[in-house]
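Methods — Computational structure assignment.
A single polypeptide chain was analysed. Its primary sequence is given first, followed by the predicted tertiary structure written as structure tokens.
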Amino acid sequence: MSKTYHVAIAGATGAVGQELLRVMERRKFPVGKLTPLASERSVGRTVEFRGEKIRVEALREEAFAGVDFAFFSAGATRSKQFAPAAIKAGAVVIDNSSAYRMDPSVPLVVPEVNAGDLAGHRGLVANPNCSAAILCVAVWPVHRAAGVRRIVVSTYQSASGAGARAMAELESQSREVLEGKPARPEAFPHQIAFNLFSHNTRVAENGYNEEENKMVEETRKMFHAPDLSVVPTCIRVPVFRAHSESVLLELERPMGPDEARKVLASAPGIRLVDDVAANRFPMPVEASGELDVLVGRIRQEPGNPRGIAMFVSGDQLLKGAAWNAVQIAECLIGGARA
């Protein structure tokens, strides 16, 4: 009989927690026992897994006894509070928060990019920021083939990246505006319906907001390239699900669009969507629910044989969160599958 694992999910009732359950079902992850955990206000609720309703338990230190894998998606504060107890109990923690991403002793991993870093884990692996994960899947194959000196990226980030309240606000505001009523921002600082605005995180002294600085720091860490130039601009857009990114790469050597398409078409975790004749390229509506990152609109920077531009769409709840976490666990048990 094949080995099964006791899996705990901290934040099981949240958006990413629910996606974790669905991805484990989809991937047939070998769960022998599931322990869904959440805050006290969610205790007693149930989550559904493989047709069974399982009662949510309180997130507390004692809950990790006998757990093999603990997926954390309950925010940085909860991760810092409870991850040490899970590790002490013998679990491998895969943390989706920002709590440990830049800790030099903690691997920050996108399996298509740096799965080898998992070899050095000490019971804790960090899942990257969603925008950084999607970017790195798309850029890494080109970096391996031609070397990337500089990345200029603009993101088009969906409402679901800010949670269920933000998605509901996009829906309600859209109705309000169409009915001629004033939009009422609550989850977001500005109107999201029929609008876009700079990512709603604090702007640091360097002029970049928190989301942008995460993309810089995390990409450099996963690429093992501390001096890599990354220039991000992160924008919220009125899309329900899946983030998109416009990417311009400056390369070490010349690379044409045909070579770039060939490199990307054979890369793991990527689906090439680059139908010039039909004017069909990556779209968030098609990336939603997909495990792969969609890459296309591949073209040369005018006058620069070392410049390649592309457009990318990826489901930030999946490759940007839940799927990447489950993929890390698959790598750790030696069961990574396409």
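Note: The two ends are 23 Å apart (CA to CA).
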